[in-house]
Amino acid sequence: MTDAVVNEKRGILKRKVEEGSHIDEGDESGQNNKLPRKQTNHRLCPYLDTINRHVLDFDFEKLCSVSLSRINVYACLVCGKYFQGRGINTHAYTHSVSESHHVFLNLLTLKFYCLPDNYEIIDSSLDDIKYVLNPTFDSEHIRCLDTSDKMSRAIEGTLYMPGIVGLNNIKANDYCNVILQALSHVTPLRDYFLREINYSRVKRPPGDSMFLLVQRFGELMRKLWNPRNFKVHVSPHEMLQAVVLWSKKKFQITKQGDPVEFLSWFLNALHMALNGTKKSDSSIIYKSFLGSMRIYTRKIPSTELDDKQKAAMLLTSEYQDVVTESPFLYLTCDLPPPPLFKDETVENIIPQVNLYTLLAKFNATTEKEYKTVKEDFMKRFEIIQLPTYLILYIKRFTKNTFFIEKNPTIVNFPVKNIDFGDILTPEVKAKHKQTMYNLVANIVHDGEPGKGTYRVHLLHKGTGKWYEMQDLHVTDILPQMITLTEAYIQIYEMKQD
């Protein structure tokens, strides 16, 4: 485009706005040092009707689509693309002239500008765009989240329930999506991250940017519960980029992973980023999920010894119980091995087990053998403190020399009123005011080990309904159907008195 044409277009634009605004040219790099001396309103900006809310998507990385710079980035509200700067010869300025797109939003300051004339737009009709980019919640709104059954409507007219919003699967990140969805329904965790003021004052050591993980999780949480979304799904792109960075590529967007490994890493990483310590109340993570158990460990004499030698060794201190106390963020439940042989009549019968049978591992009396290269041990587990939110990991996959094997055993569990006090000793149970729990999230694995897909069942407390979510697909589901799935990770909430 020639200079003459550009100048002609600029002259036309100036005549349209006439004397309604002070024009701030900005510098060549797009870093503007001046502020408008006179604020305008929508009557003085003739281009607000060119804004296309259907193409606006603020879920992705805030960088210029031309220079890939993260500095001073503006979103074109007509086509949705990101460009750097707004001064003469910047990418945003060039785009506005060549494409006749004139309304831009600064993604950092949340201010609107008209280019190429470079004046700020002050108009309340743009508040919905600002809210989608940065949703905010007050205390009263947060208190009503678990009691409200009000539906919201996206721009295209689709109804959705805040909190029950699909997450985009970029390639193979469904194992992350189910964990992020499940954690978004842990009430104290959600309430904490919905208000940025709760963690904005956390100070990290100089040069450490791990706090970015906290910020990204807070942003994702606010988008999932946003009652004014433009669309009925959210992309976790920025959140997962922070995960890839801080896990040193252990967890990736393009390669399937294990949700329980991601959950363990993510909770500990958030705890550290919030300056958490070993104290149970040092972060919202520990306040919600931290429990405690005693582990009784004793050595087993070698099988090569005769009975007399074994009896003598068992009397020595080396073979007595060693008691240690250990905190936990989740409990690992072991499934009984599936039947080795099947005949024609039981070929299609899937083995089943009761949840309380799996929990017997933690009743302080059931022993389990653990083998190492040199020695064998027997261990007993005694829970001495139940957390507010109890996470169960049902171990379905076992690795051997050649392949990974999946145990298809169905776990029978109630959805409501599960008494975990049954596995506590009388002394420990007496110290707990409440031991009854309700299920709030259930993560399921479908398919072959190492491959397959993950989906999650979530309870929306406001409606009392259960929803099944698999990436972008959201459907309601009867609670009776949840118990028929191959449960992998479950989150239980302690009932309030």
TrEMBL record:
Recorded catalytic reaction(s): these are: Thiol-dependent hydrolysis of ester, thioester, amide, peptide and isopeptide bonds formed by the C-terminal Gly of ubiquitin (a 76-residue protein attached to proteins as an intracellular targeting signal)
Q: Which Pfam families match?
A: UCH (PF00443), zf-UBP (PF02148)
GO MF term list: cysteine-type deubiquitinase activity; zinc ion binding
Q: Does the record's keyword annotation contain Hydrolase?
A: yes
* Annotated signal peptide: none
Q: USP domain location, by residue?
A: 165-495
The subcellular location is: Nucleus
Similarity comment:
Belongs to the peptidase C19 family.
Q: How does it assemble?
A: The U4/U6-U5 tri-snRNP complex is a building block of the precatalytic spliceosome (spliceosome B complex). Component of the U4/U6-U5 tri-snRNP complex composed of the U4, U6 and U5 snRNAs and at least PRPF3, PRPF4, PRPF6, PRPF8, PRPF31, SNRNP200, TXNL4A, SNRNP40, SNRPB, SNRPD1, SNRPD2, SNRPD3, SNRPE, SNRPF, SNRPG, DDX23, CD2BP2, PPIH, SNU13, EFTUD2, SART1 and USP39, plus LSM2, LSM3, LSM4, LSM5, LSM6, LSM7 and LSM8.
Q: What is this protein called?
A: Ubiquitin carboxyl-terminal hydrolase 39
Provide the species name.
Answer: Frankliniella occidentalis (Western flower thrips)
Which gene underlies this protein?
LOC113216382
